[in-house]
């Protein structure tokens, strides 16, 4: 397969950094992005191009980044929307600004990037978007309301984008990882909001402690996870011969969690079908 051009957001660590390393090793061309390019300068020395990208920008800035990215190699084949962070807090404690930041990062900024590259992909009748979601989209987690909500919104938006753009030759892949040993739970990448209400402390205190201790104890290997995503995009190894999916659970824990949620949902539908149905006009 001829080398492809990949643009990746959030490459300072975790999945983003793994994408850059693996793709360069396979001979692909990489455009690595981050808010602070000094943190990814080493990727330029390794052969990648680097661009500044802040997901809190306006659409005009995303459009400029897309134009600059296309100008580097003449086109872009794959855009990986990877950047994200975790916010922990009880919904009653959270502020509007807390939620705006989560949605700006995981939805508004992410789709600002996608929107910027859509004209290029439409003109070429080809292109692949990869969105890094989360199994958090499949159910609530106490103290992670903003995170779960934003990842759920991402899921719905990606599925809609796929319906709109698949006929145009554009592919969309929503990857929903379980727990991987990235820097997502690093204190520098996490916001913990201590509750102001005694009623919630039996929930927040043990959960915050658990998540803080879970950093670098997660079961998933980011290198293996990223390789499976690359295989899916390129149709190689275990992904060879399979129809390109709109979503991909990533990690044994992700498969287990999503399957359990689907089974519970089917059971709920069966149990409440008589109440849920027969609501049409006679």
TrEMBL record:
<dbReference type="InterPro" id="IPR036291">
    <property type="entry name" value="NAD(P)-bd_dom_sf"/>
</dbReference>
<dbReference type="Pfam" id="PF00106">
    <property type="entry name" value="adh_short"/>
</dbReference>
<comment type="similarity">
    <text>Belongs to the short-chain dehydrogenases/reductases (SDR) family.</text>
</comment>
<dbReference type="InterPro" id="IPR002347">
    <property type="entry name" value="SDR_fam"/>
</dbReference>
<dbReference type="GO" id="GO:0016491">
    <property type="term" value="F:oxidoreductase activity"/>
</dbReference>
<dbReference type="InterPro" id="IPR051911">
    <property type="entry name" value="SDR_oxidoreductase"/>
</dbReference>
<keyword id="KW-0560">Oxidoreductase</keyword>
<protein>
    <submittedName>
        <fullName>Related to ketoreductases</fullName>
    </submittedName>
</protein>
């Amino acid at each position: 397969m001829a080398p492809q051009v990949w643009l990746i957001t959030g490459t300072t660590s975790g999945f983003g950094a793994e994408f850059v390393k693996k793709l360069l090793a396979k001979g692909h061309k990489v455009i690595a992005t981050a808010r602070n390019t000094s943190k990814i300068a080493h990727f330029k020395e390794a052969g990648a191009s680097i661009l500044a990208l802040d997901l809190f920008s306006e659409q005009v800035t995303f459009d400029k980044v897309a134009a600059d990215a296309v100008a580097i190699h003449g086109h872009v084949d794959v855009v990986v929307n990877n950047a994200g962070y975790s916010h922990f807090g009880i919904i009653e404690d959270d502020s509007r600004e807390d939620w705006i930041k989560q949605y700006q990062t995981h939805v508004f900024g992410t789709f600002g990037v996608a929107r910027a590259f859509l004209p290029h992909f439409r003109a070429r009748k080809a292109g692949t978007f990869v969105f890094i979601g989360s199994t958090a989209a499949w159910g609530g987690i106490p103290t992670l309301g903003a995170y779960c909500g934003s990842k759920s919104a991402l899921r719905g938006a990606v599925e809609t984008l796929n319906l709109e753009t698949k006929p145009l030759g554009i592919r969309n892949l929503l990857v929903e990882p379980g727990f991987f040993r990235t820097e997502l739970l690093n204190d520098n990448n996490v916001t913990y909001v201590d509750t102001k209400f005694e009623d919630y402390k039996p929930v927040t205190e043990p959960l915050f402690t658990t998540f803080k201790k879970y950093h670098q104890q997660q079961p998933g290997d980011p290198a293996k996870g990223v390789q499976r995503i690359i295989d899916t995009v390129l149709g190689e190894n275990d992904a060879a011969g399979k129809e390109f999916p709109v979503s991909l659970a990533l990690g044994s824990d992700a498969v287990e969690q999503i399957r359990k949620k689907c089974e519970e949902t089917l059971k709920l539908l069966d149990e409440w079908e008589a109440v849920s149905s027969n609501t049409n006009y006679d």
